Amino acid sequence: MSDLGPRLASAIVMIILALGALWLGGRWFVVFWLVAASAIFWEWLGLIGAQNRLLKAGLGACVFAILAALTANGVVEFAIVILMFTALGAAGIERAGKPVWAAAGMIYAGSLIISVTALRLSLWGGAEAIFWLFAVVWGTDILAYFGGRLIGGPKLWLRVSPKKTWSGFLTGVISGALAGTILLMNAMPAGQQSVLAYILIGLAAGAISQGGDLMESSIKRHFDVKDSSNLIPGHGGFMDRLDGFITACVCAALLGVFRGGGVNPATGLLIW
């Protein structure tokens, strides 16, 4: 309870910034998520105990800016290739320490900037796609917390996250899917909506976001840390707040690219 004030204040500020960047779109949106991806890479380097952390984080930020520019110009495939090569470079630089973890950190942060940029800057439906992700991920997180607290029951994965329960997981995923479906049914043009499709992709995105949360918990447990950093008062770090969003966003973008192509993944994600 003593931490409730800073947590609420930080949460409100983050929500306002995220929604503001979404509304402004364009370069402001990209800059917002470029900062987030760079902060995540900074935290990752700290987790693995990388040497010359500031230099490597700066180089990573430059790479993320290039990835964002390539994605914004519709060459997502080329951005992915560049990301893979820079991940190999990160592993080579970190060969005296934890090369595989260094490469994974580059892919983790880089995949965020590529996927979120590709969705938002789609030819059509970019804002709706990101807003849908917010509704699903935030709805899942919030209702999973309250569902787990109120219902309790068997633990989801005791060794990795002792507080998470199956009741919370199911409550959160279903609630997030419903929130996303309601949003899209009001946002999408008549005749281009599918309740069944929206519920199914919402359930998948909610479950994937919870998987991202568990993955980050297992990484922190591996390195024996509680939070990825203390950059956000009351919330830990950017990884702690965006773990579920990253995995859900990447999977949503992959589905969108598969169905709508590299220049219009939002259409592929939302029109069924």
Polypeptide structure, described:
This protein is mainly alpha-helical and 272 residues long. It has one domain (4-270). 76% of the residues lie in helices and 3% in strands. The chain has a two-stranded antiparallel sheet. A hairpin with a 3-residue loop joins strand 1 (155-157) and strand 2. Helix 2 (26-47) runs antiparallel to helix 3 and helix 3 (53-72) packs antiparallel against helix 4. The chain is globular, with a radius of gyration of 18 Å.
User: Using only CA atoms, what is the Rg?
Assistant: 18 Å
* Strand order in space, largest sheet: 1-2
Shape: globular
Compute the number of strand runs: 2
- Indicate how many domains the architecture comprises: 1
- Uncertain segments are none
What quaternary form is this?
single chain
Structural class: mainly alpha
Query: How would you state the average pLDDT, rounded?
Result: 91
Strand content: under 5%
Q: What is the CA-CA span between the terminal residues?
A: 45 Å
